[in-house]
Amino acid sequence: MIVLNKAVGNSLRNYKYANVSGSDFSLTGHFDEFVRLTQSWETMEPDPYYGQAEAGARFRRYSDFEYHPVTQALTQLEHRPYVQSLANNRYVGGMERHFQDFSEEVIASPVIRSLIALDFEVYKSVLPVHMHHDQWQCQIHQIRIEIKPGKQVDITPEGIHCDGYPFSGVHFWGKRNVKGAESRLYAADGTPLAAVTYENILDTTFFLDREMKHYVTPASTLDPKRPAFRQIIAISFSKPGTRYDIVC
After folding, report:
1. Mean pLDDT of the chain
2. CATH number of the domain encompassing residue 205
3. Gene3D superfamilies given for it (predicted)?
């Protein structure tokens, strides 16, 4: 249903990342489901660990799944906290952060299911062939940032960081009245690699997260008299007990 009309395998293999425009995707059918999924960003619970309450708020869903690329079966795992080390996240590293799980209604969306399958197809371009048919774990973060009129927030208060996933796909899902929020990628040693400001739904960055770092610059309201929002969905894959496990 969602098709990527651009080859990104060479970029991922050679540079460990690929930035893709929303115009490089096509959507076939299920347009009502696309709208329904977009509305789900408006029903998320607040992220209590975000801070910055005087300037804005972050809303978030997070769940872990088992994913089989052959059957595209997706099984939601039990609720678990999201934990990162201080080395990877100096802002809230070492804490057990509990976020709202995905509801069956949201995760049953054919749009999300199609996006997961698409992301794994991209990931396959850097995986050994014998692992293409294995079962993997899939981690999904759905995030919305809201900014109060005339205010500025840190999109990533943890600064330049790594989340520890072998592979991640960050898909932009719209914004309103936002100034700033440039997405940046860095080599592991901090050397800048790329920068892009998402403008259109499905503007996307695929990257080998464990092997680099990323950051989003602060954002403010373009019109200081009106509120603003920005939203993304991030899909990652890992394989516990192997060299493709998450590095916390």
Report:
1. 94
2. 2.60.120.620
3. q2cbj1_9rhob like domain
Range of the domain at 209: 2-238
How far apart, in Å, are the Cα atoms of 69 and each of 78, 118, 240? 20, 10, 16
CA–CA separation, 116 and 204 (whole Å):
13
pLDDT of residue 69: 97
Written as one letter, the residue type at 222 is L
Residue 195 has φ and ψ, to the nearest 5°, of -150, 135
Burial class (CB in 10 A: 0-12, 13-18, 19+), 222: middle
Calculate mean pLDDT across residues 200-218.
Answer: 97
Joined tokens for residue 107: 């995760």
pLDDT one-digit tens code per residue, 12-24: 999 999 999 999 9
Q: Give yes or no for residue 224 having a pLDDT over 70.
A: yes
Q: Give the whole-angstrom CA distance, residue 101 versus residue 79.
A: 7
- Total domains, the chain: 1
Residue 248 lies inside a defined structural domain of this protein = no
Using CA atoms, how far apart are residues 232 and 169, in angstroms rounded to an integer?
10
Answer whether residue 245 is part of any domain: no
pLDDT digits (tens, 9 = 90+) for 119-130: 999 999 999 999
Task: Work out the average pLDDT over 54-80.
Answer: 97
pLDDT for the residue 82:
80
Can you tell me the mean pLDDT for 166-176? Answer: 98
- Residue 74 belongs to some domain of the structure: yes
* Separation between Cα atoms, residue 233 and residue 119, nearest integer Å: 12
Give Cα 217 distance to the centre of its chain.
Answer: 16
Does a structural domain hold residue 118? yes
